[in-house]
Design a protein that fits this description.
Layout: H1 2-13, H2 15-28, E1 33-37, H3 39-44, E2 53-60, E3 63-73, E4 76-85, E5 88-101, E6 104-120, E7 123-130, H4 137-153
Antiparallel strand pairs: 1-2, 2-3, 3-4, 4-5, 5-6, 6-7
Length: 155
């Protein structure tokens, strides 16, 4: 019990560096069981975009560590990563790419917006950057919960 209180106090005192370390460890670790929810699933449940949707869940020892979510909307592609520590959302990384121009699809997507949001104890701690799709913590928690459910529901 004392160790968990000490760890929680330590996390609260150094939230962002601790979260960065968690995210780095998740990204560097390998050997994940990856579950992909394809566009067809999202179409079947009424979530349709003109350039598709895909979600990938990264699991270690049965625990969800990360979700990668991609949604293509017209000339844009949104890529959002959700990171979890001990079952709780701790970090969200959103990137917006332009994927088409006046002459059709671009050979290489162009990053035009990016944001990072850090969470501790279920609350937003810090936001870095901005995206026009930035809806804040309420949307992050709701989207993460929906994607978790999609990962559970998809066979």
């Amino acid at each position: 019990m004392f160790l968990s209180v000490l760890a929680a106090g330590s996390m609260y005192g150094q939230e962002v560096p601790a979260i960065r370390k968690i995210v780095e460890e998740i990204n560097l670790a390998g050997n994940y069981q990856v579950k992909t929810v394809p566009n067809e699933y999202f179409v079947a449940i009424g979530q349709v975009t003109d350039n598709g949707i895909e979600a990938k869940g990264f699991y270690r020892n049965g625990e969800l560590k990360k979700i990668e979510y991609s949604a293509g909307l017209s000339a844009w592609n949104y890529v959002t990563e959700y990171f979890f520590h001990r079952g709780r959302l701790v970090f969200v990384h959103l990137k917006k790419y332009r994927i088409s121009g006046e002459r059709g699809y671009l050979k290489k997507p162009v990053l035009i917006a990016e944001s990072r949001r850090y969470y501790g104890n279920g609350k937003l701690i810090k936001t870095v950057g901005k995206s026009d799709k930035d809806q804040g913590s309420t949307a992050d928690f709701g989207q993460a919960a929906e994607l978790k459910k999609d990962l559970e529901d998809y066979p």
